[in-house]
Amino acid sequence: MPAGANLLTVIVESPNGLDKESELYRRLVSAHLFWEDRYSIEIVEDLLNTTTIKALCSRINSKYIVFMKDTHRISLEYMPTLLETLDEKTEYLVEPKIYMGEVPALTSRTKIDNNYFYNRDTDVFGIAYNTKRLAELLEIVSDLDRSSLYITYRLYWSINSAPRIDTGYSVSSVTKVAIGIVPEQTIDRMVPLISTTCQELRLYILRLLILSLRGLRGSKKSTLSIGHIRELIRFFGLEELSSFAEALNPFELGMFNWFADPNNSRYLFKQLTERDAYLEFPSEEERDESYYHLYSIEFPEQTVEIGRSYLSKELRVGRERPGSYDFYSRPIRPNSTIIFYDRPMQADDNAEHLYDYFTKNYPEYNNVYFALNKKSPDWERLEEKGFKLIPFFSDEFYEKFLISDLVVASQIYNISYRGKTLQNSRFVYLQHGIQLNDMTDWILSKHFDIFVATGKIEADYLSKLAAVETLNSGIPRLETLAQNMKDPEHLLFMPTWRFNLQTATTESFIESDYFKSINGIMTNPKLLEYLEKHDKKLLVQLHPNTERRADCFEFSERVVLSDLSYSEAIASAEMVFTDYSSVVLDAAFVGIPIAYYQWDLDDFFEEQPYESRLDYEKDGLGPVFKHSEDILNYILNETYLQPSEEYERRRAVFFEGVSVDRISSTIIERMLEL
């Protein structure tokens, strides 16, 4: 395709080479049926930054330029709509409606309001820039990070209202929201101080700042000065918009408030029953016995310490303010409304198991509900069990939430209704599994009154982050699992997911080491012969993100795609193996042998938004194998049936403090005291 077409050049950032079978590429190419002589596609293998973008603008002679990433998605009508719009008249920029997830079928229904502006990605992608104007800008402001270039372009050219075309572009990832933004190490300012009264732009700047503060928690070091951050907040009047960050970024909002007002070194993070949790930004002399250290972040001027403290609710500012309702003022009693939930479309997790136990053993509590989507395959099953079901995120759900005295769940969602949130009301977090990885930044971003741990090792880790809220009881499904053990019927393989395959095409997925490693086990002739000889089956329980690729795998009469729940599959397993999934710890808890097949151990965590806390080889509850022949020999020789004093010792240490027949009762006793 000839470079330099006179209307538009599409630049695709593709460090690993663009998949020509991908949906993105096919939709880009399809526009050539009508616009072949008017636009071109150029693939760049370098990561885009202001320097590379400046070089591209200087040599590309098309009127407009668009930047894309090979993992992003565009709607079917994106290219035709964009090209037709650009062909009509000269614009400084034209942008589609931008989404953090899937592009909706009807983009016309997208509500363009302040929430849209705050939650929208602020990067350069998906927007058509006037190439000449962008080049002129980069001659003047070449010291900015790419993540702020879009905002700066609009500030510099005084574009208060961006023309939006009715089509969609999706960044297809929430990774940036999870880990934040870390500017290039040469960057010492976020955006230039160009005056604007445009609230849309100010919300974008707030979003950029909040995500940068999120990135600081991971990097622990900033090239941006404290003075620059404070000047941004003052110059653009961001304090009056800061409430937009409250639901999704409460920890960063605490950091923001300290930058805005350094004289106030304490920020209320979570209301609790007797003592509230605060974020602290103290000087050395201000720290006392109530202070728990969390972060040390190095700025050019000084190192900022951030910690947590628990102080009497009597100290809460505005507690007695007229019109302010304290959702803790009413104690939990048998007439209290209590809501349980797992995932919207899936139950059979810790909330379901605890709900079942609670309603059977505490029948005097008769306003206890379980939230679930009516389209969930679990709805009918739970209805038959007598669960009081309410549709998840329905009007009924929110009304019940408003009058509830307690919410108990295995998932954390940002629920907010008429002034009530998880920040100012009781919430028990049961977890989905056990924390094997370092999820410190994520945990510290969430609101909970109780955080359920399983064993002393996990409880010790969590207590450093949430000393008052951590409860070492064990997760409820372990108690149910122990009560429902069956005679061994099969082997069980439970591989987890890889974030870098999220947007892979089917062809790319099949070529990945992930697919080849899993499918290689499933189709190994020696394993199939062993299963046939001993009349056994290998059940494969795919991760939910992999299930849509199930047809790619070569299942057989002896290697079967599991349709059982996790607990059912584990309860009847002779041995369970995985790559990294913590779900196999359920099996280890009840004495079922486990093993790890980690074909990509050397680089697995480079692609994940977290690091491991567990040394699998030194502290794991089963052996670790890097090669398929080794895990296969372990299975074929039935080595897993041989008792191991070492793994029994590790198991006892790992699950210390958990009483198998007291898990649910321990949680309930604690939660009713809130």
Tally of strands: 28
Distance between the termini: 66 Å
> How many separate helices?
26
Give the overall pLDDT as a whole number: 92
Proportion of β residues? Answer: 15-25%
As a percent range, the share of helical residues equals 25-40%
Give the strand line-up of the largest sheet. Answer: 2-1-3-6-5-7-4
Give unreliable regions as ranges: none
Radius of gyration based on Cα positions? 27 Å
Structural class: alpha/beta
Protein model, in words:
There is one protein chain. By secondary structure, the protein is an alpha/beta fold. The chain contains 26 helices and 28 strands. The protein has a seven-stranded mixed β-sheet. A seven-stranded parallel β-sheet has the order 14-13-12-15-18-20-21, with helices on both faces. A hairpin with a 4-residue loop joins β8 and β9. α3 (50-59) crosses α6 and α9 packs across α11. The mean pLDDT is 92.
In a nutshell, what does this entry contain?
This protein is an alpha/beta fold and 674 residues long. The radius of gyration is 27 Å and the shape is globular.
